[in-house]
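User: For my dataset I need records formatted as: sequence, then structure tokens, nothing else. Please produce one.
Assistant:
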Amino acid sequence: MKKILILTYDFPPFTSVGSLRPYSWYKYLKEFNVYPIVVTRQWDCQFGNKLDYIAPGSSSKIIIEKNEYGTIIKTPYTPNISNKILLKHGEKKYKFIRNFFSTYYEIIQWFSFTGSKSQIYNTAKSYLKSNKIDIIIATGDPFILFKYAAKLSAKYKIPWIADYRDPWSFDITLEKKTLFKIWSRFFEKKIVRTCSSITTVADFVRTQLPTNILRKMIHIIPNGYDQEIIESTKNTQPQNCELNIAFAGTIYKERDHPFESFLSTVSKFLYETNTQLKINFYGINISDELKKIILAKYFNLINVVNIFPRIPNNKLLLELSKNDVMLLFNDYFFISTKTFEYIGLKRKILLCYTNATAQKKLINKYFKKKIFNINMQSQEDLITNTNSGFCIKNEEHLWEVLLNLKVEFEEKRKIECHSINTEQYSRKIQVEKLAGIINKITPPYTVINK
């Protein structure tokens, strides 16, 4: 059985979407004759919110866990000075000092193996001194892990795979940070050219790679849904007292997610139709802002909207399965993890909106260079091809669909979803693709007959 060393920062019990991809590798690779060894940081998850990302680990010693799936090596984690100040004094105090130290650590980590993430490199190097590994994979971001994988690859003569969950130097968050963008592009070109192969979640990420990297072998391995967790929700039925609409995860303002438009339409709809409705937000990133908006503009939604904290993925999917309809904001060319999970749950999806103007605006934000052969309506096509929901054109169309849902719910006390061809989007199938790539890169073992 071949062995793969997985370098990942996000990993359960941390409840980020980014942790689900490497966890699926850990969970399923052994079924395809590849033994996974995960090197990650310790996650204590004491806050249940974004502070968990910078909170100290549970131990000052390395923790090693082995089970039927593979091995997890959890490195100690100590917050840097900036994060210590944030944890002690909160977000509003000492911003200049925190920004100074954050910038310092962001820069210095590329020149020396220091900083809060360096323990992953040190632990992986120590492991490789006495253990044979066939291949290394690093998933980003943080993209400093690519540097670690490249160094380990060169030192121990082991091929490595660069896995992009998001763009690096072409990321939209760097658009207004010219120096950091140039800095990131320099290291991206230098480091990723040493890898044996590249994997990524979507075609749009591939288009955001520097030209010299595009000559590499690039494989699209989408995210998906965990079939075992989905199966565990099969006996859970939605509440039949009132129509429940759910949204989980991040609301991206930079992608122009039309959450205010949705709330406005629902507010008017409830006022005119007297519909019994609940909207449930799970683990969203703008909970405080959302509460303020509802209080200021949509007072009749105060008892309609519920906001729940972030919870582990298996519990989240169980809660989502108690809802009748899933709300999804259109990312056009990018298919989010929650899209696959909504499809796996077999609940009707409301995709808001299929607006050509918003699509063009978003494309102009993301694509700063000429691109070819990318489907700008990937999310819409996925929902249409699987018969998983409604592709809402605008507010008027949303009103019409809400009215139809109201009628169906009042007649049947449920919303039916007759989706098709969803099995291909399970994470297990995506991991099988990764195993195939690993086998192509690494030489087969030779059996010697004595």
